[in-house]
């Protein structure tokens, strides 16, 4: 009987040791797996962040290209307007000579021309005559917005340069001033419509 009891106690002790060994082994395995899991999570996070950075770089590149294109278009239009400014200055100075001394109300301003009666003859200055080839390539025609005397001895004309779809691409203000019996351009101002360029 004593041998049987001893054998049972010994068996329980051995089984308990095996269970503890198994638990320790499982704990060690979980401890070994933990760094691997963290490493996998870190790799996934790095990959996700790398993809986000790559996407942001792509969007930034595309946005920069759009900005560069709009800036180039503005530069071209500004260059055209600068050429036109010089041309208008010369053409108006020459054409206005034929109008003689402008006196209200003998001056008539229409959508496409200015008229004045001189010695019972109608003298016409067409705005289309003031266009350069570069200007024609950009704008189809002029539309008069406003005109009239803006001060003593000074006459103003404001018109828009309009494209084929009737979009106003820019506005131009001309100030004409009488000088020694002839009308000269005293000021030309350009206002670009940037909404049509974007």
Automatic annotation (TrEMBL):
Q: Can you say what this protein is called?
A: Lipoprotein
Which residues are recorded as binding ATP? 177
Coiled coil spans: 39-73
| InterPro entries for the chain | Membr_lipoprot_lipid_attach_CS (IPR012640), Protein_kinase_ATP_BS (IPR017441)
* Pfam families in the cross-refs: LPAM_1
A Gene Ontology molecular function term for this protein is: ATP binding
Please provide the record's keywords in A-Z order: ATP-binding, Coiled coil, Nucleotide-binding, Signal
Note whether DNA damage occurs among the keywords.
no
